[in-house]
Amino acid sequence: MANTSGNESVPEEIDPENYSNWFALYHLCKTIGDKKSIHMSSTEFGRLLNVSQQTASRRFQTLEEMGWIQRKLMGNDHIVRITKQGADIMLLMYKSLKKILENILIVGVVTEGMGEGAFYVSIKGYYEQFKEKLGFPPYKGTLNLKLSDLNYALLRENLKTRIPIIIEGFTGGEKDMQSAARSYGAVRCYDCYLSRLDDASKKKKAAILDIERTHHKKNIVEILAKPYLRNYFNLKDGDRLRIELSTS
Questions:
Q1: Alpha helix (H) ranges present in the chain?
Q2: Residues 229-241: pLDDT tens digits?
């Protein structure tokens, strides 16, 4: 058996020569899931990697020699377990991919709104909190940006790692037909900066409004800022803006 003590240091980056091993480790981890180990023959491993049985057998041996897995032969099967060093490599992969994804431009296309943002921003219970918590008195309306499926997924994934600014819900304001006080839900906000895609030199601080109850269509993001953004950036429907999430 090869040395699988896991004492070798984990590199800062994945060596291109190890991409095939990286790929194999990824698929093993994905298959093992939350189990401690898995029974797998080299033929099954080959099907998983879309390679021959002989190549898969060599891959098993290489991963073991590198200390990324431990294995024990039982007949034609291997009992495979991911080592701590293998788990550290997976963490390195995650951090590298996360950095790449965070650097991909998130771009939204200016689109006509429904007036919904203007209505809610104008409500005193929201407006006063926006001024206090966002650090600026917002224009009483929002800019609507439509994102592609990929950009929207990237944005949602990025927001998961950030602490939102919470605009508290409240009861009051306009009354309905039965004269009962209306309830307004909490709103999550995220600091960001906007710039035209064709001119990144001019940036403006803004906030993404993450509203749970909205009538907007799929992939529409509402942006709140101090100036009227259409005038500030000289925008028309179809123009594209870059969204940069604040690092603070």
A1: 19-32, 42-49, 53-65, 84-103, 116-122, 124-134, 149-160, 229-232
A2: 999 999 999 999 9
